[in-house]
């Protein structure tokens, strides 16, 4: 059975998509079977995987509304060893259209059932909001992975997210776990980042990944070429950090931690 992880943080620009794409590529390189789900109307994970979002006939939008099956809409990512369920701006409409549907919070979970057995990991790139799309991601997932920048307001944002996770547990997904917190765009010379990082470790302990993602220009450049950093510059610090993160995840899983 696949381990389904929602990569989420309602704060924008913290590295959700960069993490989703590069982790999918890294787990794929480690011979794990991966499905990357783009759950964001911005379609950044789609573009970053080498798929032009403007040319798509069908996307996750049709899957959520139930007019296409996930198995027919998913595709092999041209830029990595993983499958992709793509998205584009059409998905923004789903927010509104799903409101009248039955079991509207369960649409993604139910769509994933049919293909779950084909994967080791499903990574869901959530939008920067606590909306119905994100609730679908949190309801479908076994656990959440939270990328965050070690900034002044980061911990405050985290308590909103933890409150949302608790709500989802109470109503929709009692077993939803916190898989881990990931420090992104980390600059070790920045004193504030060091302080926030220390607080994070104090509050969340082992839930914080030991692997830290440094600020690295290759990670920012790769999407404009439609590839993960692993494909763009494998030796870059960014690509290596995500390979290390995949290694840490796989080790944790195998040691049962
Ligand atoms: N480690 C990094 N080093 C340098 N730049 C990075 C790094 N991680 C992400 N970026 C850049 O920061 C910006 C935001 O990253 P990303 O799109 O992954 O965040 P996001 O949380 O998915 O954003 P959104 O909330 O809009 O979906 C992008 O331009 C990305 O290329
Ligand atoms: Mg994003």
In words, what does this structure look like?
- The chain has a seven-stranded mixed β-sheet with strand order 3-4-2-5-1-6-7, with helices on both faces.
- Helices cover 43% and strands 14% of the residues.
- The radius of gyration is 17 Å and the shape is globular.
- It has twelve helices and seven strands.
- The mean pLDDT is 95.
- Helix 6 runs parallel beside helix 7.
- It starts with a strand and ends with a helix.
- With 257 residues, the protein is an alpha/beta fold.
- The site of adenosine-5'-triphosphate has 20 residues, from helix 1 and helix 10.
Q: Can you summarize this structure?
A:
The chain has twelve helices and seven strands.
Low-pLDDT residue spans: none
Beta content: 5-15%
Order of helices and strands: EHEHHHEEHHEHEHEHHHH
In whole angstroms, the N-to-C terminal distance is 18 Å
> Rough shape?
globular
Oligomer: single chain
Bound molecule types: adenosine-5'-triphosphate, magnesium ion
In round numbers, the mean pLDDT is: 95
How do the strands and helices of this protein lay out in sequence?
Layout: E1 3-7, H1 16-29, E2 34-38, H2 44-48, H3 60-65, H4 70-73, E3 75-76, E4 83-85, H5 91-97, H6 107-113, E5 121-125, H7 132-140, E6 143-149, H8 154-171, E7 177-184, H9 191-204, H10 217-221, H11 229-232, H12 237-254
Parallel strand pairs: 1-5, 1-6, 2-4, 2-5, 6-7
Antiparallel strand pairs: 3-4
Helix pairs in contact: 1-12, 6-7
The structure holds adenosine-5'-triphosphate and magnesium ion (MG).
